[in-house]
């Protein structure tokens, strides 16, 4: 089932997610619904807070980035085979010299900005069967993970922008929070909850 994606301005996007265990209610169903929702919106990642669940879980499938001509063959291989659910993740380290990449977010439609992030991360997480892994990623794979990880920490990519950039997009963000935009997928706007 396709869930509405929570828009910028909703308090759930600012909550630090809680760890979950195998007994979390209807977890398999939530994961399936999140995959459906992410693909319906042509996303490469989706975090549970973006569909209204303040828990530490996100998923990624960065395979669309593998179609970019500038991506190396080795990176294409990684990106094409990285469809994965991360439960209770913890980034252990972020290393290297920060690099910029133009990021967007399903909760903030039609806003894209260059964001600086470190190129390599080591992350510990559990999969859908609650098996624990520690893995290292770099490049675009690391970036997608970092972006989704920020969501479960209550952080949005717009928080990482300069004060000038934040001022320039303030009007757009205000319109998103008021539902004064159109998106190609279902959204839930914070200002629309009251009275509807």
From TrEMBL:
Family membership: Belongs to the polypeptide deformylase family.
PANTHER family: PEPTIDE DEFORMYLASE (PTHR10458)
Active site annotation, chain numbering: 148
Organism (species): Gillisia lutea
Gene3D superfamilies reported for this sequence: Peptide deformylase
Entry protein name: Peptide deformylase
GO molecular function list: peptide deformylase activity
Binding sites annotated in the UniProt record for Fe cation: 105, 147, 151
């Amino acid at each position: 089932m396709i869930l509405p994606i929570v828009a910028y301005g909703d308090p759930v996007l600012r909550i630090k997610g809680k760890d979950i265990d195998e007994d979390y209610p209807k977890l398999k169903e939530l994961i399936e619904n999140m995959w459906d929702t992410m693909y319906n919106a042509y996303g490469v990642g989706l975090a549970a807070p973006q569909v209204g669940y303040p828990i530490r879980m996100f998923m990624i499938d960065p395979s669309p980035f593998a179609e970019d001509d500038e991506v190396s063959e080795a990176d294409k291989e990684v990106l094409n085979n990285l469809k994965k659910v991360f439960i209770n993740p913890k980034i252990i380290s972020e290393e290297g010299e920060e690099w910029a990449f133009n990021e967007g977010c399903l909760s903030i439609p039609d806003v894209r900005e260059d964001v600086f992030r470190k190129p390599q991360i080591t992350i510990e997480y559990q999969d859908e069967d609650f098996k624990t892994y520690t893995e290292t990623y770099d490049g675009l794979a690391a970036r997608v993970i970092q972006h989704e990880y920020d969501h479960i920490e209550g952080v949005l990519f717009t928080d990482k922008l300069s004060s000038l950039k934040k001022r320039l997009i303030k009007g757009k963000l205000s319109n998103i929070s008021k539902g004064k935009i159109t998106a190609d997928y279902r959204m839930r706007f914070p200002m629309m909850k009251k009275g509807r």
